[in-house]
Amino acid sequence: MTQLNPLTVAVQMDPMEGINIKGDSTFHIMLAARARGHRLYHYLAPDLTYRDGRVLAKAHPVKVQKVEGDHYAFGEPELLDLGRDVDVVLMRQDPPFDLSYITATHLLERVQPETLVVNDPASVRNAPEKLFVLDYARFMPPTMITRDLAEVRSFLAEHGEIVVKPLYGNAGNAVFHVGQSGANLSALVELFNASWVEPFMVQAFIPGVAQGDKRIVLVDGEVAGAINRIPGAGEIRSNLAVGGSAARTELTDRELEICAAMGPELKRRGLLFVGIDVIGGEWLTEINVTSPTGIVSIDAFNGTDTGGMIWDAIDARLAARVAA
């Protein structure tokens, strides 16, 4: 599709009524789109339909405004052909990264030749946060992926303290710190193996997490900004969704090195909006590509416009398509 100005944008995300407009990154991007005059549609992943070779979505035209309790207004639903009727699809629903999520990537991949999908759905599918990060193991704390209790015991004996977390979790859910005694370790492994069919991730505990877990946002491979997320009292988890607080921060030389190492690959894969997590200024723990957050706080602390940067990058991608 030829680039339009303004653009027609379909946003695949969570229900509008449930979002927190003070911190929701998708809403922030939608406000930036509105400021540029783009036409917005909203739909949920279950609203996708494949029929006769086309991918359709029953979507509501939506207007957004930064007014608590009155932040959106829907028009009458329309059946959109995502390949013909839309310039850009934003895939922004929250995980879990399960078969439903993977199916949505397969469907959206079919519209990608006609319509720009951000982030690239095939790359999202092939880069789950806690597995893609293994490509950059040289920047990570000691890490193991397993279902084997004996292996976890051996890892704990080697590193003294560990963190255990689900491979496809999000927002800090089900993240456990296990001390040197290993109390309840066998019960924890039993719980993980009973709750998930996948193996789980085990990492050496980094004491520096008490000083914060830095979220760094990259837009088309370039650093857009960062915040330091500080755990609440009695917590090791710093996610804002579980009570962490945000603070202004600068990047260390090591963090800049990490970003420089992965930036070109993110750009090549079409992972236009990515959030990485770094502990203690040096330890990379995750690369978030499904529905990264943090840009509202980053812009508040730094006076930046990350939503605008994202639309600039989208415009550049669309222009490159037209030129090709």
Kindly summarize this structure in a few lines.
The protein has 324 residues and is of the alpha+beta class. The protein has helices at 25-35, 99-109, 121-125, 129-132, 149-159, 185-195, 253-269, 295-302, 306-323; strands at residues 8-12, 39-43, 48-51, 54-64, 72-74, 78-81, 88-91, 116-118, 143-146, 162-166, 176-178, 200-204, 213-219, 222-230, 245-247, 273-279, 283-288.
Mind telling me which CATH architecture of the largest domain this is?
3-Layer(aba) Sandwich
Percentage beta strand: 25-35%
Roughly how many Å apart are the termini? 12 Å
Mean pLDDT: 93
Q: Which topology of the largest domain does CATH recognise? A: Rossmann fold
What is the top-level CATH class of the largest domain? Answer: Alpha Beta
Low-pLDDT windows of residues: none
Count of extended strands:
17
Q: How many structural domains can be distinguished in the coordinates?
A: 3
Catalytic activity: gamma-L-glutamyl-L-cysteine + glycine + ATP = glutathione + ADP + phosphate + H(+)
Cofactor: Mg(2+); Mn(2+)
Domain ATP-grasp: 130-315
InterPro entries: ATP-grasp, ATP_grasp_subdomain_1, Glut_synth_pro, GSHS_ATP-bd, GSHS_N, PreATP-grasp_dom_sf
